[in-house]
Automatic annotation (TrEMBL):
It holds the Pfam family EthD. This is Ethyl tert-butyl ether degradation protein EthD. Residues 11-88 form the EthD domain. Gene3D superfamilies: 3.30.70.100. InterPro entries: Dimeric_a/b-barrel, EthD_dom. It comes from Actinocatenispora rupis. GO terms for molecular function: oxidoreductase activity.
Amino acid sequence: MHKLMVLYPEPADPDHFRDYYVNTHLPLVARMPGLLAYRYSFEVAATQGQPPYFAVFEAEFADAAAMTAARESPQGRQVTADVANYATGGVVAIHYPVRDGTR
């Protein structure tokens, strides 16, 4: 499995961010080919001090190639272009293969 994580710093208008994100952006995300699952939260907390991020998003793909194909698809390009409509604080996007842990 491969994950894409997007971290959102505090936007200029948190209410607009929440509304636009849920009602406009996430429906675009859901149309991306190869997307297995996605999750998000506006309730980001830090273990100490103030949280550095306002919201977090994670998407799951079968592998890095599936993620790349999804992001390069017309739907993926539309998702990327839409970010400027709500993320006035910018974004930090990272991706990584997921490894199972053992005890």
